Amino acid sequence: PLATGATGCTMAGLSREILKWLQSLDLSYSVKNVKRDFANGFLVAEIFSRYFPHDVQMHSYDNGIGLPKKLGNWALLETFFHRKRVPIAREMIDDVIHCKNDAAIPLLETIYTCLTSKKVHNVVPRNDDELIPPFARPTASKAIKENIKDSELVTTLQDDAESRSRASNVLASHQQSLRNERLQEPGRFTGPSSPQRSSQRVPPRPMPVEAPQGQVEFKEVQVRPINRNIATLRATRDVNGSLPKTDEEAQREFGEMDAKAMQVKPITHVLNAVVNEHLEPKEFRLLDQSKDSVVSLVDRLVASKIDPEAARKVFEEMLHNADELVQGFLASPKEFWRMFSIFTGVLHLPETNACYSMVLRLFCEIGLRMTQEDAFLACGLFGDYGLPKIVPLLKTKPAKRKGLLGMMYFFCESTMHLRVIKALQDALDDMDCFLQCIVILMHLEPEGFSEDLLDLYIYYAMTGLGHQSATLRASALSMVVLVVRQSHLLVMPMLDKLEAMKDDGWWEVSAQLLRVCAQLLQVLLPQDEQCGRVCDLVMDIVSSTYSPLVRKMAVSCLAPVLSKYTSLEQIYHDALEQLSEKDFSTVMAAPDPTAMELGDPQQQVLGNSLAHMPITSPLNFLDPLLVIQSLSDKIRKSNLENLEPEHVHILLGVLETKFEPEHTDHWYEVFKDLELHVYVALADDELCTSIVSVLNNWITFIGPQAISTFDTLGKALKLVFAPDGGQETPIQCQAAAKDLILALRESDVFATEVNKVVASLKNEQDNETLAELLRECA
Which stretch of DSSP H or E encloses residue 172? Predict the structure, then answer.
């Protein structure tokens, strides 16, 4: 915020345009005294950092008041001014450093014009000197003091001759002003006995004649006392904040609220009943009987003196009482404060604790139901009582931010998000922490949020892009991805900044840049003017990176645009080939992030950018033969003896697609390379069910050529039904093997050969499944 009205003359001289501009920059320190606040150059550097984040790094500047710190800051700025050809003279800088009167105003006007290309429209001020009484006008010593500062004597005026010359000039100017006063007001300078006194006396100023006015009568203000607390008033207010129009309506509604509040049981009674009923007896005996049961339960849990699982079950039962709790909160907001006070200790438990997750879920459920009942009251109560409780956790526990901020949004419907974001910023009072929170909040927004919210998020995304923290820069880029989805035209002017970030050096920044480019390429057309720049940026990042994580992101996010931009195919295949077997399998087998909630443990996420870098499997966009050939090569190079679940997932994905008959020989070659791996998977209880579908589809597509691999099939069946050492194979493996044999026998191409393979098996252990299979194949 910018102090404008309360500072009096300290802000005088600045035009309204510059005041509004400074407010829009959201500087880290309020401008209260122009002459003083800009003297050390820190705020000047921050202004330029908003426009040149890579050239002006705020960690290089010190917000001190000492002369050495001022000179150091301005020396850095002078270098920047020279490089960018900013027209700020050294004399202007010296006047600002030494806090000369009105010295900062022309400096700010020059900066404003340089950065915005707008001219300042100054209004010619009235001559205030005429209103200054003679005794208040500056004396010679004051004129010297205002024009020659002590700090100048140790910097720019160290030469005695120069300082004496400056002082002489100031005195000469002061004496000239006195002579001008003598000419303009001669009566002030004649003595009391001088003959000129009477002849040149100035006539007295006439007193203004007051017009007769009638007596003013003021109507007595009728104040109706309200014997209700603010919580009751707030509860009667609707979403628009209006109160009942008439006294009768007000009294009636107040009476109804009081009656309703008296009827609602305190939440401690409701929660105590749940604890008394569902807490295990041995744990219940550990509670402090002098306290409420729920309070004692939380205290014992935080002190690790009670079984966490027993406490979790109790908290889960509280979900069934959510409606009763909500009605109590709506009738008596004090109960809402009590609820947060009781469970704050649980929110301080580690985020991996099941009780923390369950209490967070309880608050989310309460927030959802309160918003459905009264959205305005729910948001207001959370801002008053809930937000102060979670702010310390948001500052000190980064891993809890996503859950806590998600809970906050449950108490605030989408139309109130701007309001709660402003309240969060004021409560945090920490710009870095707030930027980290704003990234999470943008990812929690539903699709198609309002333009006001979009403008807010774009502003803080631009702020984050220039931050000194690499993690925050990467997180800000994840916000840009969402901006592209909403309106890609807003991102096109940022291309220069995005291109400058390709040499950032931090892998997360490169990976997020690839996500931004991939999103842009999906919405742009190949003939668009900026497509070439985006494609060049992608190729520069992928070709220059040494990070396998950046390559994983490239393989994941660029696959959907390969068919549209063929120029990216070679760089994509190079990245695919450079992936290790583990990285390749992780990317190809990644689950669909749209089918699960944010933060799901199944979701594959790269990096630390507030977990906003999900990996999407590219299987649906790639040639199945290319994928399976790459998988075979990587398994062979890694010398793996058995398949992993990720491998089977990939095989299922590619073998469910439509096959091209001209590629049959290539599929057969890959099958020959992997025949031992896929057949042996029949003996793996974790993979056997899935591998049956893989083998059936693969063998059916290849046709008669697959018969050459049936010797390996026979060995695998012996491993399943008659393993060496007599140890019985899990029953699910035997059932899966039987299903495969019966499925292959349905084809006339394979029936005879499959019967031969089964006939070669010996049922030495009287295996019932094998015996049944032998009978069916006889």
Answer: helix 160-184
